[in-house]
Input
Amino acid sequence: MAEGSGSASVAEIEMAFQKFAVHGDTKATGKEMNGKNFVKLCKDCKVIDGKNITSTDVDIVFSKVKAKTARVITFEQFTQAMVELAPKRFKGKGQEEALQQLYGLIAGKEPANVGVTKVTKAAAVDRLTDSTKYTGSHKERFDESGKGKGKVGREDIPDTSGYVSAYKGQGSYDSKVKEQE
Output
């Protein structure tokens, strides 16, 4: 027997099934798995290897084991699907051995990227957020510590008074209105 083919417990398989079943679906109970997550499980656990098993094979098996009108499979149907896929994935192995090896791939796994949102900082972002790199009039926008001064650091604060630029009687509207009363 190949290394890593120690028989995986049903509990470990069922755990993996449940984790993938609820992946990306807040309403899922973990009792049933949809086709998308079934394919994800097969991809993440390397059941799909691109040679012996492709995502098309997985789709076909999924359709085969699910109930006619259903769009999900139960854990029992999932195990049936694995029985179908095992000999394809591990060609030349006996049914039982192939199945054990397939389960070995799945046991204890969970969806890749589950709840992992890595903050990627591109070099461009570093460059743009480094106040020491600003030159000329732009460097006036930061104090010594590199913290932005906000509006104070800008000279070209737009005039939002509503008057046309260079209008001499700016601010005299109220007094004119009062005169006419």
